[in-house]
Every structure is written in structure tokens, then in C-alpha cells.
Amino acid sequence: MMKIGLFAAVLVTVASGSAFAGGQAGTVGVGAEFQLNGAGGASVNYDAGTFHIGGFIGFYDPEGARNTMFDVGARFYYHVHETAMSDFGVGVGLGIVSVPPPPGVTDRLTGVFIEPSVQTRLFLASNVALSFTTGLVIGVVDAGGVAVTGQGISGSIVDLGTGIGFSGGAGVHYYFF
User: In terms of C-beta density within 10 A (0-12 exposed, 13-18 middle, 19 or more buried), how is residue 27 classed?
Assistant: First the structure.
């Protein structure tokens, strides 16, 4: 009985192919991702092995007149460390947001955000990744001034009660081999 079990274990090991690790070069992932500034939506990533690059497009139209929001963005992360099921990247994101005018203003507002940041991708399976991002938001709204903050367009995600905020982005992608 012991020989049959050992033979079966060897047979299964030999018959199985090599396992794919997370972040395979040449793969494309589809999903959703949100930047630090709050912009985000449907997303596509291309993983080149040592880096990944991606973009998103978002659209939100709640009930009411003149309140539609559009956003589009891109990001690039160079992988400074990788394991079989995760990677840590340093990079930058760029987002453009078109928002409805506040009360008393007739024109829509356009925000441009540059986000130097770090991102961790955790592969739950060989082709399903969760991503978590944190960094700095540098934003301009209709060339009316520049803001450098850790907060997004709608304020901080977590308020520590001291006026200091922490902002983060997150996403999920399914990669095709």
C-alpha cells in the first residue's frame, strides 16, 4: 500500500506542469481600480514582468441635471521587489477628472492629479490580484492653484482627528495568461 501511495504522489508531481506565479510577464488584467484622489473605474493593466502599466475610465451620472462626473487616468509601477504571489512597486499615477460645477458656478471643473506612490499587489490566485496604493496627491483644478496633500478630491478616507489624513487607492484585476 505504501508503494502505491508513493507511486501516485510521484506520478501527480511529474504530470503537473510548472505553476504560474503572480505577475506574469506579458499578461493583461481587467478589473477596477481607484486612485488616491478618488478617481477610478473600469481598468486594464499590462504586466511586463519588471513593471506594470495600466489605465482606467470612470463615469458617474446620479439623478439630476448637470451632475455627471467623468474621469480617466493612467499609472506606471516599477517592481522593486517580487515574490511568487506579490510584488511591491514604486511609480506614478495621472488622473483627469471632470466634475459638475459647485453652486453659483456655471462651468464644469477639471482636475489634473499627479500621484507619486507605492503599490502592493497581492495575488490571491495565479491570475487574480488585489492592489493597494498609497502616496502623495499633487492636484490642479482649472489652473486655480496647486495643492499637495495626502488627501483626495473629496477629503481623507481616514481622519485621525488631528487634521492629518491618510488616503489610499485599491483595485482588483483578473489576469489572462
Answer: buried
The model carries a pTM of: 0.77
In contact, 156 and 106? CB cutoff 8 Å = no
CB 51 within 8 A of CB 88: no
Question: CB-hemisphere CA count at 13 Å for 31?
Answer: 20
**All domains in the chain, ordered by first residue:** 23-176 (2.40.160.20)
Residue 23 neighbours by CB under 8 Å, 6+ apart: 47, 49, 52, 79, 82, 87, 121, 123, 129
| Spatial separation of the C-alpha atoms in residues 118 and 157, rounded to whole Å | 17
pLDDT single digits (tens) 47-57: 999 999 999 99
C-alpha cell at 57: 475610465
Give me the sign of the Cα torsion angle 21, 22, 28, 30.
positive
Say how many Å lie between the first and final Cα of the chain, rounded: 39
Q: What is the pLDDT of residues 80-94, one digit of tens each?
A: 999 999 999 999 999
**Amino acid (1-letter code) at residue 49:** G
